[in-house]
Amino acid sequence: MNKTININMNKCDGDGGCLNYCPNQVFELRKITANEYDSLKFLGKFKTMIKGRVKSFAVNSENCVECGLCIQQCHERAIQFV
Ligand code: SF4
């Protein structure tokens, strides 16, 4: 993989769609830490209050084949290649 997967924590609502669509088990859900929460912008904190602290992380990004399915399915537009 040449590109890096970036998940915008201010946008991710942790619904896990990327886990379901990714054919290569790149993503994992976990609760964000206190420091990660502190680093969110106002709207990210507000969304976290509503949706909870679970968010998606690309823990196995080396498995990515750049198919783009995760980007297409994310209703929050939280995933990008950079
Ligand atoms: S681009 Fe494809 S392989 Fe890569 S993380 Fe997204 S769904 Fe998985």
TrEMBL record:
Keywords: 4Fe-4S, Iron, Iron-sulfur, Metal-binding. PANTHER family: ADENYLYLSULFATE REDUCTASE, BETA SUBUNIT, FERREDOXIN III. The keyword Metal-binding applies. Pfam families: Fer4_7. This is Ferredoxin (Fe-4S iron-sulfur cluster binding protein). It comes from Desulforapulum autotrophicum (strain ATCC 43914 / DSM 3382 / VKM B-1955 / HRM2). The keyword Repeat does not apply. InterPro entries: 4Fe4S_Fe-S-bd, Fe-S_Ferredoxin. SUPFAM superfamilies: 4Fe-4S ferredoxins. Residues 3-32, 55-82 form the 4Fe-4S ferredoxin-type domain. GO terms for molecular function: 4 iron, 4 sulfur cluster binding; metal ion binding.
